[in-house]
């Protein structure tokens, strides 16, 4: 395992879990499920079966470095890599890959979001080991695809050859990545059977992803790989700050995945959720006889159906006659939202921020 390195991406603001997820403490640092562990702690523990703990790095915004250190005290300070500004995932990955390559040219990298819920740990480990095998021996860019269970419009999809019969745990070439579809298209994807959810989990050798960046994003590659001697020295942060100042804001999907012909997908069947929205919690919370999920010791629902309610334990809440909705209160902010509109919450918040900026920390 000494050549395996895990990179946990933990710089997002989690706006779709507003109002409990805020810019000062986004969802990856919250105990969303009420089990005594935050999402980033669960992710860290999951990856201990993949690499030694000294090879696990956190990529996060500089504002969250202290929260990471507080929640993962076993990490050395140099295992917390900080971005001075948000420039999406490609610059972060270019940073981590360059840093680790400078330490170990044979490094295998597992890139994982910090806010996913993954059950069946043994199956997850088997899938990742299969991905590492392909990344190492075939020098391929490997992504983890999740077999869809519903026509979800909140996920991107991976298309592979429908004529190649593959079982879960096997590897197949990718035809193309498809952006988040509308409901009609998502239903068609499910019927076809050769579309899997794009989990956002990637596996590759550090050398392989750096070569891909050099081919498809030469400016980005030049910025972060121009001086490998700066990494793992006291000069690293100053060097990285300059790189982020000059680099493009671009995701790894647009930067590399949509261009490369060297990508494969491991077809996966473990229980997975990206916990991207309140609605994605539905299958992981307890329900009453009317399919309501309630977090809050003094919340009382009458004539309500298929609602998620999350309110402070010390607040008495009475709700009557509401269906298919999300009701959340936190820190003097209240959300009442139809489940069908949860993908619109970012747009709603953008408009609200213009009139009530005092509720949105920077």
Give the tags.
362 residues; alpha/beta; 2 domains; four-stranded mixed beta sheet; 10 helices; 24% strand; globular
Tell me the CATH topology of the largest domain: Spore Coat Polysaccharide Biosynthesis Protein SpsA, Chain A
**How much β-strand is present in the residues?**
15-25%
Largest sheet: 5 strands, mixed, barrel
Number of strands: 17
CATH architecture name of the largest domain? Alpha-Beta Complex
Going across the biggest sheet, name each strand in turn. 6-9-7-8-10
What is the overall silhouette?
A: globular
pLDDT averaged over residues? 92
Q: Would you write up a description of this structure?
A:
It is built from ten helices and 17 strands. The chain is an alpha/beta fold. The protein has two domains: about 5-275, Spore Coat Polysaccharide Biosynthesis Protein SpsA, Chain A (Alpha-Beta Complex); about 280-360, no CATH class. A five-stranded mixed barrel has the order 6-9-7-8-10. It has a four-stranded mixed β-sheet with strand order 12-14-16-17, with no helix packed on it. A two-stranded antiparallel sheet has the order 5-11. A hairpin with a 2-residue loop joins strand 16 and strand 17 (about 335-340). Helix 3 (about 90-105) crosses helix 7. It is globular. The mean pLDDT is about 90.
Write the layout of secondary structure elements.
Layout lengths: L3 E6 L29 H9 L8 E6 L3 H7 L8 E4 L5 H15 L4 E6 L3 E2 L2 H17 L3 E6 L10 E4 L10 E8 L4 H10 L2 E11 H11 L1 H8 L10 H11 L5 H6 L5 E6 L3 E2 L19 E3 L3 E4 L5 E3 L6 E4 L4 E6 L2 E6 L6 H11 L7
Parallel strand pairs: 1-2, 1-4, 2-3, 6-10, 12-14, 13-15, 14-16
Antiparallel strand pairs: 4-9, 5-11, 6-9, 7-8, 7-9, 8-10, 16-17
Helix pairs in contact: 3-6, 3-7, 6-7
């Amino acid at each position: 395992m000494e050549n395996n390195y895990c990179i946990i991406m933990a710089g997002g603001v989690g706006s779709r879990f507003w109002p409990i997820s805020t810019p000062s403490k986004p969802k990856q640092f919250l105990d969303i499920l009420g089990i005594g562990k935050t999402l980033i702690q669960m992710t860290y523990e999951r990856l201990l079966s993949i690499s030694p703990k000294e090879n696990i790095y956190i990529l996060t915004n500089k504002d969250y470095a202290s929260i990471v250190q507080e929640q993962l005290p076993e990490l050395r300070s140099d295992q917390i890599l900080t971005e001075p500004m948000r420039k999406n995932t490609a610059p972060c990955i270019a940073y981590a890959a360059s840093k680790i390559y400078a330490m170990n040219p044979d490094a295998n990298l597992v890139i994982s979001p910090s806010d996913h819920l993954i059950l069946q740990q043994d199956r997850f480990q088997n899938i990742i080991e299969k991905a590492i095998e392909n990344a190492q021996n075939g020098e391929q860019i490997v992504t983890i695809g999740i077999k869809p269970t519903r026509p979800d419009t909140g996920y991107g999809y991976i298309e592979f050859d429908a004529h190649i019969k593959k079982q879960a745990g096997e590897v197949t070439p990718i035809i193309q990545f498809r952006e988040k579809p509308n409901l009609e298209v998502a239903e068609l994807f499910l019927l076809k059977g050769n579309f899997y959810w794009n989990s956002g989990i990637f596996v590759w050798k550090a050398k392989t992803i750096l070569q891909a960046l050099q081919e498809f994003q030469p400016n980005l590659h030049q910025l972060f790989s121009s001086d490998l001697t700066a990494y793992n020295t006291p000069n690293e942060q100053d060097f990285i700050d300059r790189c982020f100042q000059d680099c493009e804001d671009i995701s790894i999907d647009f930067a590399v995945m949509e261009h490369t012909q060297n990508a494969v997908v491991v077809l996966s069947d473990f229980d997975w959720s990206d916990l991207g929205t309140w609605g994605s919690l539905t299958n992981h919370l307890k329900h009453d006889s009317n399919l309501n999920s309630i977090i809050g010791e003094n919340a009382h629902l009458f004539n309500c159906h298929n609602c998620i309610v999350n309110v402070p334990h010390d607040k008495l809440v009475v709700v009557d006659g509401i269906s298919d909705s999300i009701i959340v209160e936190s820190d003097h902010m209240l959300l009442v939202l139809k489940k069908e509109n949860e993908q619109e919450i970012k747009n709603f918040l953008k408009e609200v921020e213009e009139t009530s900026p005092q509720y949105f920390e920077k």
